[in-house]
Amino acid sequence: MSQSPSPSVFTSFLRWLRLKNYQYEVTFALYMLTPTEKFIFNTLLLLIVSMFVIAAYVYLPNHVVTVCNRIWYYWAGDPFSSDFSFVGYDMLMDKVKMAAVKTATATATAAVGSRVPEL
User: Fold this and answer.
1) DSSP of 18-59, one letter per residue?
2) Can you give the pTM of this predicted structure?
3) Which residue positions in the chain have pLDDT lower than 50?
4) Rounded to an integer, what distance in angstroms lies between the CA atom of residue 109 and that of residue 97?
């Protein structure tokens, strides 16, 4: 018995690309358009998507920093500074450390308590 050879990686990739193109055309009903109409639609779609990507690349980091600074202001009560010198920082860090120790202790206790006794 001989088995037919499996298709090459290149052939499989081309098949996958054709399938994705078919799915794209069926999803957006492009299969019923003329080639000129398809070109216009695809050009407009590419233009809009590229504008969104460029806008996100240019403006999103600054927007995220602005939002973070506003959250910091509402939480800490003063503008953000890189040296973390707001009132109560040491007390906050002590509470965070105590919560971490309590969580680690509770986790360790639960892990020891859930062990099955050996026979």
Assistant:
1) HHHHHHHHHHTTGGGS-HHHHHHHHHHHHHHHHHHHHHHHHH
2) 0.50
3) none
4) 18
